[in-house]
Write a structure and sequence with these properties.
Blueprint (H helix, E strand, L loop, with lengths): L28 H11 L12 H13 L13 H12 L1
Length: 90
């Protein structure tokens, strides 16, 4: 069950972070992601998906395209998640 966390705006100083939500046709998601990465210049990106299978597909494509990519999913241990997030931050 998801829990909501409230943070006071004055304590949150993330001026260099921008968030986008993009929608595309369900059968063309991987092609859409490829197009976004080709067009947009980003240093770090988090992509949320609803299946481990699709996450693996995206991860493999990013690796083949020489992007640094990490995958995180619910069945990972807390230690594995922390390690993955640290790699992402570095």
């Amino acid at each position: 069950e998801a829990k909501q966390i409230k943070i006071k705006a004055e304590k949150l100083k993330l001026t260099h972070i921008r968030q986008f939500m993009l929608k595309c046709e369900p059968k063309k998601k991987l092609e859409f992601i490829k197009e976004v990465f080709d067009v947009c210049e980003m240093t770090q990106t988090i992509i949320f998906v609803n299946s481990l299978d699709f996450a693996e597909k995206i991860h493999q494509w990013l690796r083949k395209a020489n992007y640094s990519s990490y995958i995180m999913f619910s069945k990972m241990s807390n230690e594995e998640r922390d390690e993955t997030m640290q790699k992402f931050r570095d």
